[in-house]
Amino acid sequence: MPRQGFPVEEIPTHLPHLTWAQVFDALSYYSDHQADINAHIERNRILDSEIDPLFNE
User: Fold this and answer.
1) Is there a domain that residue 51 lies in?
2) Total Cβ atoms within 10 A of residue 28
């Protein structure tokens, strides 16, 4: 899971629909598959220059 800048203890606060079990399952899965997940994220990244400026208004 990409880091969002807050401690793991705060994840359920920011994503209250997730249980602690789901949070730790996701973190465990990411830990086991970091390279594949990061490669997927990078392949699907949209550059700021490709986003229509009107989208952000």
Assistant:
1) yes
2) 10
Rounded alpha-carbon distances, angstroms, from residue 28 to 20, 25, 41, 44, 56: 12, 5, 18, 22, 34
- The predicted-structure confidence for 11-20, as pLDDT tens digits, reads as follows 888 899 999 9
Q: How many CB atoms lie within 10 A of CB 11?
A: 19
Domain with 35, as residue range(s), is 20-56
Q: Is residue 30 part of a domain?
A: yes
Instruction: Give this prediction's pTM.
Output: 0.65
d(CA 23, CA 52): 34
DSSP state of 53: G
Question: Into how many domains does the chain fold?
Answer: 1
